[in-house]
Amino acid sequence: MIEKSLSDGLELAREGRYFEAHEAFEDAWRAAPADERDFFQGLVHVVVAWYQDGRGNETGCRRQLEKAARRLAAFAPRHRGVDVASLLAQVERARPGAMPELDVGQAERVEDASQADVEPPLAVEVEEQPEHDEHEAADDS
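-> structure tokens emitted (141 positions)
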């Protein structure tokens, strides 16, 4: 349910269908665990900001942009395959009355959200230590 609603919301947002996108993101928000609700509410605020701008409601747009930034900040740079950092940059640059086209990018691996943001551990090279002869250690003291 969450993954489908997220995917649908992103597709609708890409198409500029912001009202419908907000409904899909709200469905995801309602089904989401508590620790992810801010993420989905942030997405709702983003698309509602663009929707309000299209209606000429600059005050509503500005308020939605502020809420979006607050809700999404903790999920940057990526969450559930969404480029949150890019969304936050767009929110920061957005100006009611002169909004750029919203670019939500591509959601990656939405169907496997539990692993979408897990990165493999970095390989750590261990420097080999020269083997010391027991007699050398005694000579050094």
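The domain at 2-140 is CATH 1.10.3450.10 (Hyaluronidase domain-like).
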